[in-house]
Amino acid sequence: MKFVVESFGCRSNQAEVQEWIIELEKRGYQLTTAAAEAAFGIVNTCSVTEKAEKDVLRFMARAYRHTGAKWLVAGCTVHRSRAALAAKYRDYLFLDNREKERLVETVGELFPADGRLVYHSAFRSRVFLKVQDGCNFRCSYCIVPSLRGKARSLEMPAVLERARHYAALGYREVVLTGINLSSYGYDLFPRRTLLDLVGELQHVRGVEIIRLSSLDPRFIRYHFVRELAAVPKVADSFHFSLQSGSDAVIRRMNRGSKGDEYLSILEQFRARFPGANMGADIIAGFPGETEKEFRETVAFLERAPLNYLHVFPFSPRPGTKAAAMEPLPPALVRARAAELKELGSRMKLAYRDGCRGKTFSGILIEENPNYALVVTRNFLSVRVPPVRGYKKRSLRVRVERVVNENLCEGKIA
């Protein structure tokens, strides 16, 4: 029996979908990319921003009109708007963030597998491993805690068991994900940390690269950076949840940090990982952001040892403190976001220019008749001449040309 999947939003959502696919294929279901062939579909939704939620709703409307598959709709949008969705799409099954933990079992009950074959589609060449969910912070702009609940960590033996299973399937890179990954283990007894997990994961045979998704600077201290640098398998690419470089804006965001503290953390990472590709989330046009405060953020970003930015125009989410604040004019928000995105583009090109002529290890993620694509340890996408039979395998590539801010070209070294 064939099924199709779609995922919106964060890497935790991607990790959940990947886990569902692997478990369903073990039980005799076959993944397809053609919805017309599918007996059922799964969509993991996102409501963290207004745009993400609109993308979900557009997809559902198209799927309802153009596919005959019965869809299981799961995740944050269901958690927030279940009644409205159920009234509009009466033939679909809706699972909120608690109920989707039984999604695989629910599929088995609704669509019993009609064969005993075990499939493995290599939906991704790098495996996303979700080790944490929820968040205990209450940032004034963020709806996630009300959708995902309190911080919860997967017990370390369970994480290692999954990692060993994924390595046995041929995955060589493990991307650790979580809603607040940096808080991993704080809820466990005895308490563990993300460093503890990485230290154990490095010993899993077959795992060659350990990549960390977004890091929260509120959990980072000097010893974290020092000990992380002592693990050779850690990928030298890091993403940080910063949101602003202005102390006043950070305070209104209720994030309990200062720009100088952010800068110190970034400099510590740069000292320990000199060639790392480092980026950050930044919100443009937060309510009350003055021109002076915006320029403080720009100046901070120009000083910081960052190589790319993920820029989000402020999006008020119902029920958050920031939604009740006086918003900036939409045109001003768009203009500030555009300026920050332009700065981020220059950062990306400068970093890639500095990588020309250098050789990096990475994972081959895509094979095509005309080219193959490698993602390097420092998170460059490098197009190389076509090869066959190397998907998911690690290899070394030499970067020879920068095509644009998102793509390089090179050859297998």
Protein architecture, described:
Helix content is about 35%, strand content about 25%. The longest helix is centred in the C-terminal third of the chain and has 26 residues, at about 330-355. It is of the alpha/beta class and about 425 residues long. It has 12 helices and 17 strands. The relative contact order is 0.09. The chain has helices at about 10-25, 50-65, 75-90, 105-110, 145-150, 155-170, 195-200, 220-230, 245-250, 260-270, 290-305, 330-355; strands at about 1-5, 30, 40-45, 70-75, 95, 125-135, 150-155, 175-180, 210, 235-245, 275-285, 310-315, 360-365, 370-375, 380-385, 395-405, 405-410. The strands form 4 sheets. Strands 2-1-3-4-5 form a 5-stranded parallel sheet, sandwiched between helices. It has a 5-stranded mixed β-barrel with strand order 13-14-15-17-16. It is globular.
